[in-house]
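Protocol step 4 of 6.
Sequence for Transporter (Flavobacterium rivuli WB 3.3-2 = DSM 21788) entered exactly as in the expression construct, tag removed. Do not edit the line below.
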Amino acid sequence: MRIFLQRMVLLMVLLGAPVLHAQVPAKELTLKDAITYALENKADSKKAKLSVENSEYQIQEVRARALPTITANGNLTFNPILQLNALPGQFFGGPEGSVILAPLGQKWSSTAGVNLTQNIFDQSVFTGLKAAKTTREFYQVNAQLTEEQVIERVANNYYQVYVQRQKLTVIDSTLKNTTEVRDIIKGQYDSGLARKIDLDRMNVNLSNIKTQRQQIVNAVVLQENTLKFYMGMPIETKIVIPKTEFNVTPLNINETPDATNLTQYQLLKKQEQLYYYNKKAMQAEYYPTLALTAGYNYIGQGPQLPWFAKSSDNVYWSDFSTIGANIKVPIFNGFATRSKVRQADIDLRKTKEDLIDTKLSLDLAFQNAKTQISNSLITISNQKENVQLAQDVLDNTQNNYQQGLATLTDLLDAENSYIEAQNNYNTALLDFKLAEVQLIKSKGELKTLIN
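Step 5 output, structure tokens:
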């Protein structure tokens, strides 16, 4: 029986092994796919949407102050010892000038009723209602800004992943070519036609290339994980980035955008409005307030618990009602209101300075992006020609080396020059794409990346 169970466990493990080691296909990821995924799954984007939803509840809270407040109340009181009150004796048939101690009230009393309060005039409520619309708009603009920030981060990291993969492609091609040359030299050395030092130098160079490749592989993994994080994608998900995504396209850099129309600036404008209403709310404390109050109550009193008792039990029930108006006129509070108003005014003035500085910053970002675009285009053109030239030099040097017309040092130098030229070209491409993202951002067109 024991042997049978062991065989069954072994069989289950063998049957489950293919499932456990099944390869999950890599997800092909375009830039549009990456951004769309991030906007749907990244925590920042979700939280911004929740803030918009929460703003509706904040608005309802402010509106509630303008609506009537209705409360129901009830109480039950037992007086073990009734208070004695000194009353004139003649009221009860006694001699003039006499005083008697008489208890007032009953041992038990119970009250139940409904009260209503309605603000008739409260300047802070009116100001809060005016600020309600601005509050909603503030969170809507903030959600839009958050989306743009998510798009920017994803686009930047997407291009960085692409460049790292391009570097990996270059090093893989170099590794393949170097391995072939090393094998040729090894064959020559085995035949007595090459020196051992040449074979050793090739082995050292091959080892260095393998080390560089491992470093790039690690960089690719780290950059991909960073991209997945900014997308809100599970880190274990495998992704593939199409090569066609990385193209240099002409951009319009002559039209200067209006920075005041950008989301970052508009958010500050909404914040300025909120600070304005906050100042108005502080000033509202100078105004009097008027509220209407009304109540209807029912009271029962007697020597025993009034609930469910009757008049035959000496328990009596009666109702009473009140209607009134409460007015509150501020006179002096130690200049506390004045201090609050001045603090609110400082916040408003600071926001105005932030608006000036933000516009300057947005204009700077656009000009810097234009400069970077122009420089990158020149660098890309030069590096593209340099890569082709380095490739030609490497091909010729390899051919000459095989024919004995070039030294091993010449071959290694040509190989290193080609790798450097290719990496410089990829770096120039990355600089261009990052500057492109900044230019699109400075024009307020980041959402065009998902169109």
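Step 6, annotate. The two ends are 66 Å apart (CA to CA).
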